[in-house]
Amino acid sequence: MLIGQNSVVSIQYTLTNDSGEVMDQSQEGQPLVYLHGAAGIIPGLENELTGKTEGAEFKVTIKPEEAYGDHIPEMVQEVPRTSFPPDQDIQVGMQFNAESPNGPMTVAVTAVTDDTITVDGNHPLAGLTLHFEGKIEGVREATAEELDHGHAH
């Protein structure tokens, strides 16, 4: 079966950056399973997998515009420490939900001083060219329930 709209696809993969540093990977025996065409993976990878079959290996490079977008400097802000509860221990790497003009968003703490907390609303992989290498473990038709829910079960 060819990968196409409404296929449930299982892949083993390793994701690296331009320096070859492993950014993410599936665990042996625990492939990533997604519903093709339902925005379950980044567009560039989904496009590259379209038309492939079970057992096929892949090695693709995805530019930021087909992944998590460019890094937007305006999404990095210094927030007064007083905006957080005084007894809360804020650490780099923590994530918070914040309100934005476009609705709720997740921000990550990137720096902490006595007076300010720097938060970044960009996706951690925004602005990066991503390199995927892997193998397609399985391809099948989605069930009616999966199609109704918009994701693989």
UniProtKB/TrEMBL annotation:
Keyword Cytoplasm tagged: yes
Top EC group: isomerase
InterPro entries found in the cross-reference section: PPIase_dom_sf, PPIase_FKBP_dom
GO molecular function: peptidyl-prolyl cis-trans isomerase activity
PROSITE patterns per UniProt: FKBP_PPIASE
Main location as per UniProt: cytoplasm
Subcellular location as annotated: Cytoplasm
EC number of the protein: 5.2.1.8
Key word Chaperone present: yes
Catalytic activity: [protein]-peptidylproline (omega=180) = [protein]-peptidylproline (omega=0)
Stored SUPFAM superfamilies: FKBP-like
Example of a GO biological process term: protein refolding
Keyword list, A-Z: Chaperone, Cytoplasm, Isomerase, Rotamase
Residues of the PPIase FKBP-type domain: 6-100
Pfam family, one: FKBP_C
Highest taxon in the source lineage: Bacteria
GO cellular component terms given for this protein: cytoplasm
Family: Belongs to the FKBP-type PPIase family.
PANTHER family: FKBP-TYPE PEPTIDYL-PROLYL CIS-TRANS ISOMERASE SLYD
General function of this protein: Also involved in hydrogenase metallocenter assembly, probably by participating in the nickel insertion step. This function in hydrogenase biosynthesis requires chaperone activity and the presence of the metal-binding domain, but not PPIase activity.
Name listed for the protein in its UniProt record: Peptidyl-prolyl cis-trans isomerase
